[in-house]
């Protein structure tokens, strides 16, 4: 007998309500009463050949507020209103089953069974909600009266964004609806601190967007029915990771898109042989990481595993480590020893099988603003332990949204980042043999101060910095740094002319590019290699889903 079922509990006093069973429709839609502030979804019974249960909380326009997935390894989900900033009223729970012998019956629309405990007063939901709205209104008034105070309270909070072409954004008071900024506008007070330590005011405009019409999808056009045809490529997003796992394959994880919503399609596999995408979330077994942005994902070629660490989701912060074995395609969550704080927008580098995590944003108890870290933490996967090494020298100041490139398997170069209200364009180098930091004195025309930029190693001696956010605008310029001469060179490529921040940049093997000649010192690394740029946003409410490619040979030839 097949005893499989999917149940939901609406509110703290509600009884379990059966939504799906072995017989009947494989899709159900439930209107959540306005008084309900918590929803728990769980499965019971044998899964058999069933793959997963997709769950989505959507608003009155059928736009997703939050999504989740039940699997044979992750049988329970829970949501609370305080975690989802756009959960107000008229919320609908959509549940659909994948795999097994699916029924052909149409979608079922259900109502929540109202429940009031005997001899008890009804929960003060309306009063609490009223109080919450009043507090929000008061906060908005304070925001308008004292902009500087608001910036201090939101210190180091990375912008979370708006529509589907797009980038990260925080809503600005008085701004027209539908044109939210990815990042909070801070031209009046944001200081841009350069390598020389001088502060300067930075101004500029963002006007360019990718020419592809597919990328320019309006949020109104995105208001489609919940059950649509499978996507052929990832949705627009920022704050994701794109992690190469072999010469022609990369894995996309996480990100946030339009209307500050976490992506419904959080995991994809990219094949550069034919530049195609495959939705990969259901390909892997085990407990998948919760939706997040500002995390890191790095691949260890020796163990052939991806390590995902940290990140944030609305008011949640993570310090968990998830591992994806790319041979067995199975997720595991590490029960690590040692202490590491919840971090987001940090950097993570792989050296000799260990993860080097530097900087990032960490939460502080309310009403204190979030803080930036200047600490270095190392995770040893063999012992499943975190530890802090003894580091000497001139180390970088606290920051987040910076980049870190491992060069020649012995040095990590750290560039840029910010710690509100200061944005940086300085460079530091960590000698992995001596565990000693030093400030790098550079020559040439350096990038302007920025954070949330993209970076990629181009050769044994050169790496690229592209785009980012300067405290006011998204940027589109690109620079190559030479570690032999400690010099910056600005490079120009039409493919990199779109302003982006929070995007991903990697280099991989692709077909169609010739190798450098044997005389070229960089021939051993860049022959047939291509720079790939995915996603990010323009700080004008647009989140990108395009994949841009540039030959590494072309970039190095422009120096």
Automatic annotation (TrEMBL):
Pfam families cross-referenced by the UniProt entry: Beta-prop_FBX42
SUPFAM superfamilies (UniProt xref): Kelch motif
Start-end of Polar residues biased regions: 157-166
Keywords: Kelch repeat, Repeat
UniProt-listed InterPro entries: Kelch-typ_b-propeller, Kelch_1
Segments of this protein annotated with the region Disordered: 118-235
Protein name: Kelch repeat-containing protein
């Amino acid at each position: 007998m097949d005893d499989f079922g999917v149940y939901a509990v609406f509110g703290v006093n509600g009884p379990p309500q059966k939504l799906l069973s072995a017989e009947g429709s494989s899709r159900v839609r439930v209107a959540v009463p306005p008084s309900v502030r918590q929803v728990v979804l769980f499965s019971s019974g044998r899964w058999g050949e069933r793959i997963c249960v997709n769950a989505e909380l959507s608003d009155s326009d059928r736009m997703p507020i939050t999504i989740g997935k039940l699997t044979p390894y992750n049988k329970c989900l829970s949501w609370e209103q305080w975690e989802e900033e756009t959960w107000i009223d008229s919320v609908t729970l959509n549940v659909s089953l994948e795999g097994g012998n699916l029924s052909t019956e149409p979608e079922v629309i259900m109502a929540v069974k109202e429940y009031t405990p005997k001899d008890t007063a009804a929960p003060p939901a309306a009063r609490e909600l009223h109080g919450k709205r009043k507090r929000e209104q008061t906060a908005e008034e304070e925001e308008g009266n004292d902009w500087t105070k608001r910036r201090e309270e939101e210190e180091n909070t990375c912008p979370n964004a708006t529509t589907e072409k797009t980038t990260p954004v925080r809503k600005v008071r008085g701004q027209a609806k539908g044109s939210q900024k990815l990042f909070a506008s801070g031209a009046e007070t944001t200081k841009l601190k350069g390598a020389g330590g001088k502060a300067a005011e930075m101004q500029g405009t963002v006007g360019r967007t990718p020419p592809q019409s597919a990328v320019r999808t309006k949020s109104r056009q995105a208001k489609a029915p919940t059950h649509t045809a499978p996507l052929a490529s990832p949705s627009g997003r920022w704050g994701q990771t794109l992690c190469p796992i072999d010469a022609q394959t990369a894995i996309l994880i996480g990100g946030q898109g339009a209307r500050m919503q976490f992506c419904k399609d959080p995991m994809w596999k990219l094949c550069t042989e034919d530049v195609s995408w495959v939705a990969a979330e259901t390909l892997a077994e085990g407990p998948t990481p919760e939706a997040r942005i500002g995390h890191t994902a790095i691949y260890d070629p020796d163990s052939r595993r991806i390590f995902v660490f940290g990140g944030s989701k609305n008011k949640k912060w993570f310090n968990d480590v998830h591992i994806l074995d790319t041979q067995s395609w199975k997720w595991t969550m590490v029960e690590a020893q040692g202490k590491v704080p919840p971090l987001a927008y940090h950097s993570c580098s792989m050296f000799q099988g260990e993860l080097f995590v530097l900087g990032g944003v960490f939460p502080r108890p309310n009403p204190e603003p979030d803080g930036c870290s200047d600490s270095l933490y190392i995770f040893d996967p063999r012992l499943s332990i975190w530890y802090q090494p003894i580091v000497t020298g001139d180390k970088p100041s606290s920051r987040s949204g910076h980049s870190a490139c491992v060069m020649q398997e012995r040095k990590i170069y750290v560039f840029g980042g910010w710690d509100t209200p200061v944005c940086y364009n300085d460079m530091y180098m960590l000698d992995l043999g001596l565990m000693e930091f030093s400030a790098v004195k550079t020559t040439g025309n350096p990038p302007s101060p920025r954070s949330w930029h993209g970076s990629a190693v181009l050769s044994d001696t050169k790496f690229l910095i592209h785009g980012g956010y300067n405290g006011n605008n998204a940027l589109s310029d690109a620079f190559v740094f030479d570690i032999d001469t400690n010099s910056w060179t600005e490079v120009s490529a039409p493919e990199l002319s779109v302003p982006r921040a929070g995007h991903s940049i990697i280099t991989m093997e692709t077909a169609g590019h010739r190798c450098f000649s044997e005389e070229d010192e960089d021939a051993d690394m860049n022959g047939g290699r291509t720079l790939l740029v995915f996603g990010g946003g323009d700080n004008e409410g647009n989140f990108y889903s395009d994949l841009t490619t540039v030959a590494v040979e072309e970039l190095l030839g422009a120096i």
